[in-house]
């Protein structure tokens, strides 16, 4: 169980985390979602005592990190998979961690087995692929057999097989009854991994709910429209207060149903080649909900969402 109350972190003029309160329950995977720069890593660092809050506090099992007697036995974290001495073997790295945290050496082979690295345990960690490094990082997080696990963007850069492995592994950890808190900026990935979602933007809480609720609230129906007069149509629809997103040689309209869009097109003598109701893409819904909270608008968010959706 993790509980944050009024958690705030200021770096000079930047309010990285702003009065954030949430709770993360055990026995579930909870996704921590937000656009780049939303404050996820800063929050995770505060949970782990690596950064001090400017105000507010966060507790793990009722205690602040610095009050924990054996931190690694309470909370394990994967923040940066490449944080390992490149010339050390995976086993030597874990033995060193176990020793410096007074954890029985027998745990090393157990966790290597758990993450499927036994056959390469004697190899240099510096030569590991990103997927193998992630597994080693997870093995390190599990050394103290902690009840609470934190993963910061664990699937970044992984291939589909690596992503699937991480997703299944997190489900397994939650099924063991552990608290699994995982950050990501990809809603479609989190929708498959997490049963609960905490969504932040610009350091503030946007929503805390089950993934199912968030998705059904977020995924409003849209209409995909193709037309040889796309620019005219876009402007007519925008004047009618619709929200319009560009797609490949089409637009996606929200705020109006297909009948109304057809009527507006007819009234403006605009030819339509397609008018098809869609159930909203998760990534687009996420962009809509967090849109005002994206720190650096590039105008490429919709395009990025399409790339992400296409990659799923
Ligand atoms: N050590 C620091 N010094 C100054 N500003 C910082 C520091 N760490 C983070 N920030 C700023 O705080 C804000 C939140 O950053 P943070 O890395 O927590 O976001 P994030 O949600 O993890 O983003 P990403 O998905 O890109 O990792 C950003 O504006 C960032 O530039």
Describe the structure.
With 312 residues, the chain is of the alpha/beta class. It folds into two domains: 2-213, Rossmann fold (3-Layer(aba) Sandwich); 218-311, Alpha-Beta Plaits (2-Layer Sandwich). The chain is built from twelve helices and 13 strands. It has helices at 40-47, 71-74, 90-100, 106-114, 130-142, 160-175, 187-193, 211-218, 230-239, 258-267, 282-290, 301-311; strands at residues 2-11, 14-24, 28-33, 55-60, 75-78, 148-152, 179-184, 196-201, 204-210, 221-226, 243-247, 250-254, 274-279. The strands form three sheets. The protein has a six-stranded mixed sheet with strand order 5-6-7-3-8-9, with helices on both faces. Strands 11-12-10-13 form a four-stranded antiparallel sheet, with helices on both faces. Helix 11 packs antiparallel against helix 12 (301-311). Bound molecules: adenosine-5'-triphosphate. Adenosine-5'-triphosphate (ATP) binds next to strand 2 and helix 1.
List keywords for this structure.
alpha/beta; Rossmann fold; Alpha-Beta Plaits; 6-stranded mixed sheet; 4-stranded antiparallel sheet; 12 helices; 13 strands; 37% helix; binds adenosine-5'-triphosphate
Our measurement of the CA-to-CA distance between the termini, rounded to an integer number of angstroms, reads 31 Å
Q: What fraction, in percent, of the residue positions are helical?
A: 25-40%
Number of strands: 13
* pLDDT < 50 stretches: 295-312
Shape: elongated
Major sheet size, sense and barrel closure: 6 strands, mixed
What is the CATH fold-level name of the largest domain? Rossmann fold
- Average pLDDT figure: 86
**Count of all domains:** 2
Structural class: alpha/beta
Determine the CATH superfamily of the largest domain.
P-loop containing nucleotide triphosphate hydrolases
Main-sheet strand order equals 5-6-7-3-8-9
Rg calculated over all Cα atoms: 23 Å
Order of helices and strands: EEEHEHEHHHEHEHEEHEHEEHEHH
Beta-strand percent range: 25-35%
Which CATH C-level class of the largest domain is it? Alpha Beta
Cofactors and ligands:
adenosine-5'-triphosphate
Total DSSP helices? 12
- At CATH level 2, the architecture of the largest domain is 3-Layer(aba) Sandwich
